[in-house]
Design goal:
Blueprint (H helix, E strand, L loop, with lengths): L8 E14 L5 E8 L2 E5 L4 E15 L7 E5 L2 E9 L7 E11 L11 E14 L2 E15 L7 E12 L4 E7 L1 E4 L4 E16 L2 E14 L6 E14 L9
Antiparallel strand pairs: 1-2, 1-15, 2-4, 3-4, 4-5, 4-6, 6-7, 7-8, 8-9, 9-10, 10-11, 10-12, 11-13, 12-13, 13-14, 14-15
């Protein structure tokens, strides 16, 4: 269920990403730590709502010539997936809803200074030990600093994972973005290995991964990237007397 973004679990992933070779001189680097609480709500016997918030904390240096380093809060986003409580044909699971971008950056160089919104959706199938998933969204800016570029981005995240009975999981995915304003792709491919362990009564999935940018704009990250993640799991039964 940890590979299922629509599972009936409260999870709190903390994900740290390291990217390099950024900026006009390819001398910049960036560490972005994403706090990503995922909380499901049972709206009725037939409909669930899953909220997924991404809260980025960024530390970057030498991305912009002469400006040194910046660190602080980036722009937050929230996705809301309305999902049927029952699985569809062939065990398919899906969710649709809005995504909202908030201009929460603590430094003007850490965010777009724009409000944004658009549609998001996810489709998932689980076949034994395999999980196949596709997530997509599109964000348009609709308000904010008029001196900053408008946002018009499509995000695509195909994902496949295999889990063994020993609670090891290997996953392969991409987090591809197409910027319609710049007509530019950002295409990383990421491979990760995760292990489910226990911290007292709570399960935690620990993950390490590496990726490579197959394509990116001139000023964006290039080459290899690295990722560490801890996914803390709070089964909903913890609030009703125990952990299942």
């Amino acid at each position: 269920e940890l590979t299922n973004p629509l599972a009936d679990l409260i999870t709190f992933p903390i994900q740290a990403n390291f990217d390099q070779d950024i900026g006009p001189l390819d001398e910049g680097s960036k560490v972005q730590t994403n706090f990503q609480p995922v909380i499901p709500f049972n709206l009725s016997d037939s409909l669930n709502l899953i909220s997924r918030t991404v809260i980025p904390v960024v530390s970057q240096k030498d991305l912009f010539p002469g400006l040194g380093s910046q660190s602080g809060l980036g722009d937050m986003s929230m996705s809301l997936f309305f999902s049927p409580a029952e699985t569809g044909p062939g065990g398919a699971i899906w969710g649709l809803g809005p995504i909202i971008l908030f201009p929460t950056a603590s430094d003007s160089w850490l965010g777009a200074k724009k409000w944004g919104a658009g549609p998001t959706g996810v489709v998932l199938a689980m076949n034994g030990s395999w999980t196949y998933c596709g997530l997509a969204n599109h964000v348009w800016s609709f308000a904010g600093d008029s001196d900053r570029p408008d946002i018009n981005n499509t995000f695509l995240q195909p994902f496949v994972a295999h889990t063994w009975p020993s609670a090891w999981t290997v996953s392969l995915q991409s987090e591809t973005t197409y910027n319609w304003t710049l007509e530019a792709w950002s295409v990383p491919v990421n491979l990760a290995v995760a292990k489910l362990v226990w911290l007292g009564p709570l399960p935690v999935s620990l993950q390490v991964g590496a990726g490579y940018w197959l394509d990116s704009p001139d000023m964006a990250a290039k080459g290899w990237r690295f990722r560490l993640q801890a996914n803390f799991v709070l089964p909903k039964s913890i609030f009703t007397g125990g952990i299942g």
